[in-house]
Amino acid sequence: MADLDIKEKKDIFTEEFLINMGPQHPSTHGVLSLELKLDGEMVLECTPHIGYLHRSFEKLAENRTYTQFIPFTDRLDYVASMNNNLGYCMAVENLLKLDITDRAKYIRVIVAELNRIASHLIAIGTFAQDLGAFATPLFYCFREREKIVDIFNEICGNRLTYNYIRIGGVQSDLPKGIEEKIKNFIKYMRSKIDEYDWLLTYNVIFLARAKNIGLLRKDIAINYSVTGPNLRASGVKRDLRKDRPYLVYDKFEFNVPVGVNGDAWDRYKVRIEEMRQSLKIVEQALGSLPQGDPTVKTGRVHKPAAGEAYFRTENPRGELGFYIVSDGSAYPYRLKIRAPSFSNLAVLPELIKDAKIADIVCISGSLDILMGEIDR
Amino acid sequence: MAASLMLRSMNNIITGILSLIKGLIITFNNNFTSATTLQYPDEKKAMTERFRGLIDLYPEKCVACYQCVKACPTACLAMTHKQTDEKKKITNTFTYNIELCCFCGLCQQVCPTGAIYMNKIYEITTYERNKLYINLLNPEKYDEWPHTSPK
Amino acid sequence: MLTTEIFDLLKAKFPRIAKEEGTSAVIIPKELLLEFGRFIKDAPLIFDDLHCVTAIDKKEKIDLVYIFYSNPLQHSLTLKIYLGPEDPKVESLAAIWKSANWLERETYDLFGVTFLNHPDPRRILNPYDWKGYPLRKNYSAPNFIAKPKL
Amino acid sequence: MFTLLNLTNMITTGIAVLGFIAISAMFLIWWERKVSAHIQTRLGPMRVGWHGILQSVADAIKLLLKEDIRPAGADKLVWWLAPFFVVVPSVMAFATIPFGKTLIPKDLNIGVLYILAVSSVCVLGVFMAGWGSNNKYSLLGGIRAAAQIISYEVPLILSMITVVMYANTLSMQKIVESQSHSWNILHPNLALAGLIYITSATAEVNRAPFDIPEAESELVAGFHTEYSGMKFAMFFIGEYTNLFIISAIATTLFFGGWKGPLLPGVIWFLIKTYSIIYILMWIRWTFPRLRVDQLMGFAWKFLTPISFLNLAIAGWLLL
Hints:
Chain C is an alpha/beta fold and 150 residues long. Chain C has helices at residues 3-13, 33-41, 100-111; strands at residues 18-19, 25-27, 49-57, 62-69, 76-83, 89-91, 114-116. Chain C has a domain at 3-86: NADH:ubiquinone oxidoreductase Nqo5 subunit (Beta Polymerase, domain 2). Chain C is built from three helices and seven strands, in the order αββαββββαβ. The radius of gyration of chain C is 17 Å and the shape is globular. Chains in contact: A-B, A-C, A-D, B-C, B-D.
């Protein structure tokens, strides 16, 4: 691909340049270390080293009851912890063959979709920051995210690790007057997303930096089992909320944005569109919110029958799967967390080959990886 | 052919400059919106009524049923109880280790008599570690940290 | 396609496979893995996405679990292989699905299942010179304090 | 003949210029933080003095007290000299900037040429910093900076020559005189030259969409990663003084220098310069960064041909 092929013209002695884009680097989104072999500005080879944030949640899960593990799932994808709680609790309910009240389902959908918007806001803000638009888009994204975090602070009492969804329902009903706040937020957020389109999406420099960078072909993405917005940007229409609807997603009308050629710009654009769709879902869910008691009915200690269950939910970063094997006791025998960012990151070395240094940052930013759920 | 090429590149340049100007308009408008940040030590964000801060206790309500100690995922509560004269169990010692606490609110939810609850303190900073091992029974355990009252 | 149809189709091709009683998983003997993998990747079943690879330490044996998903046909398959607890060895699927590369490295890192001719058989989450396999039931790390069971 | 009078004259103008540079650099640092804050809907420094006005003084004191660490294995002399090579040329460039009718340190008849010659020395300082700090990231930053500044020198000079052709003089005062009836920017041909000048000048100073050398997200902090304390302050002052110089040159060449109806000359000059600086800051906090090869491509494939064309048209018009 590189027009001047350095390999043939080897009469002059050139030496590769080994750089360690170390665990703490302003743009590796957490503790990821990339060992890069460079030829001038071009990357010849890249080997990622992960595991700096490995807290062995799967081992800890083996001597905690099912309810006690919920705060741990907050810390997996710490930017979208509602969706992690949802994934885990749905897997356990699947194991327990437990059904939950309608109101609880609607509340879970509202809360999960709001958290998806908050997570995408961070993804877009940091992506723009990586491309050099220093701090301005990031501040706008955080200003919007602050409104969602205030709503969550009102609903469940915490700003980042919500621990709101329980096995069999939710921790407590929505406080009074929260629907009003969410409706105002939806109106406010719609105007802001259009603002991002003006500020970033069609900006000439942004296009020059993100278009045709990090092209992820459809078959490579599927082969690396990349999921979520990164896969949809490559043209594969796969969204668990549509293919295998859980909760009450089949009752809502929303479409799945799909990119064209799977470059960094498409991944960004898919996330912007997904925010608009999530707003539509929240609006419809709020509209038809049934009455009833969403809190937990069953006893506190759940003892599922011996068996296993694998449940996948559509996380903002991809498909988050929980594979739980129970042996009848109150403690899970084995709990495997299939993290979406783990496979999304595996494709990074393939994308970075023959890219420039500035592109590394752009591609890894567009993949929106998060070390919390990679290292577990 | 050259003409269409010229036209297309002119068109690109125009749309390019237009997109740049649109970006500038957005940032300029934001100049006049009010600041969204607080001047932290002077203005503090009031926490909501359900905010989960540090763990607090009404000692008289506690019946030493150990539910909260069992429910805690990180085992940061430890309690011993004693028998009073008319056969009622009350707590003897009740220690709370802030280092391990993950502020999940499971203990508050599981307590039958509502003895244990989470107050609104979120500015938890100390210079020594032993300050983080709290004895829940003595009343002025949290005087050191500022109390941010709910809205 | 339903799991039963998939199973019948597979049974026709590979007579030596069995169905696990409780779950809808398919059990195959260890040597069949590569051939089985190539078969399910193409035409009738098109399992083009190796979604998850993990293991369960059942003390007397180690279950290796593969979960596949098919994008065009939108059905999934759970595959299990029973391995002896001493030194479990199995073929690596990294040649067929590239996602297997990292997933198998994680399974090796936490369970000690060695994958033959794997492109990069190093540990992934723990430090590269870590001794022992943490997720094994008989694993006892020096300073691991299990939560007191009340 | 070199009399005592000239000596005192030189010393007073020297002190005045240095005093102005110090104050303007401090003010610009504070102003940039306020401008970027208001664009990002926050307040910026508020604590030190009214609206944080003394923030730059506090920063200067902090940097003075900070320990001056030299990286191991650094090329001592080159590393030590680098900050001077960045600051001294930008101070020297003040010699021919016309603040007012009489307020000009020395009205050389080759003013424009002198400024160009002096301002291209600072690329040497940047490269020395990049090489001297014995750190891979700063080496990359240094190489990129050298490539960028040299390649943007060409459109810069061409656009300045178009102005010189119209004013047919090199001395800055005379250029300002020539704009007494109508500013140069109003002339279509020179407006294009002005646009090219401003874009390539921002690239010269490593700011706005062209700040590749100290691209935070890629090269940590580029060439001045290994500098701390007063040496880092020198780079900082150098950057903001350069910013002031390019805006001052822009006002004199294109916006009629100190010419203006009511107010005295100096006020007009400062208003125009600081409004150009505001636009540059506004651009900096809005746009993402260009990649290195795009940046070079933009300079050679786009700016230079257009400035040659512009030069040709100017020549044809003036014939």
